[in-house]
Amino acid sequence: MSIPTAPPQPNEEAQAPSASSLMAIIALILRIITWVCLIISTIIIVTTTATIIGTYQTVEIHFNDIIAYRYVLVVNVLGLVYTKLQLPSSIRLVISGNPLWKSPGFLMYDFLGDKILLSLLATEVGAAFGATLDLKKDLDDLNDILRENYKNTALSQIRVKLDDFF
């Protein structure tokens, strides 16, 4: 008959993740979130349209019609490509603890690429908000002018559709 022994105590050092592995996991999660948000943003920009039915013609507003929205699409695609290129390195760093490339050139690419992408995304947001506000203001002013001159009730329906677009 054997004497029961106490189960072995877990080694606390082996279970606690190190600071570098925790940072690698956070970096991977942030890259995945960035990639998903860029995909969603790209889909929204490409698929969103507004149709205005006027007295004489129907006008459809699409992202191609506004230069700032084209810039948003280009920056989104660049962000998707850059983030997709960074994902294998981040995954390997989380799994093995070693970076995919250890060269100083890759570290510089990683550092500067993140900063450039951040700057592009920030200017993209500013351009999109500015274009949206200007376009909405211009269309609201046009609506007011036409309402004063023609007393057209159909313009209020057009304005509701434009408000949904923006």
Q: What's the number of domains?
A: 1
Strand order of the largest sheet: 1-2
How does the major sheet shape up?
2 strands, antiparallel
Mean pLDDT: 80
Strand content: under 5%
Q: Strand pairing plus helix content: what structural class?
A: mainly alpha
Count the beta strands: 2
Radius of gyration: 26 Å
Low-pLDDT runs of 5+ residues are none
Task: Assign an overall shape.
Answer: elongated
* SSE ordering: HHEEHHH
* Contiguous helical run count: 5
Q: Separation of termini?
A: 79 Å
**Roughly what percent helix?**
over 70%
What does this 3D model show about the protein?
- There is one protein chain.
- This protein is mostly helical and 166 residues long.
- It has one domain (20-165).
- The protein has 5 helices and 2 strands, in the order H-H-E-E-H-H-H.
- The chain has a two-stranded antiparallel sheet with strand order 1-2.
- Helix 4 (104-150) packs antiparallel against helix 5.
- The longest helix has 47 residues, at 104-150.
Give a quick rundown of the structure.
The protein has 166 residues and is mainly alpha-helical. It has five helices and two strands, in the order ααββααα. It starts with 11 loop residues before the first helix and ends with a helix.
Fold topology:
Layout: H1 12-15, H2 19-47, E1 50-53, E2 58-61, H3 67-96, H4 104-150, H5 154-165
Antiparallel strand pairs: 1-2
Provide keyphrases for this structure.
single chain; mainly alpha; membrane; two-stranded antiparallel ribbon; 166 residues; transmembrane helix; 5 helices
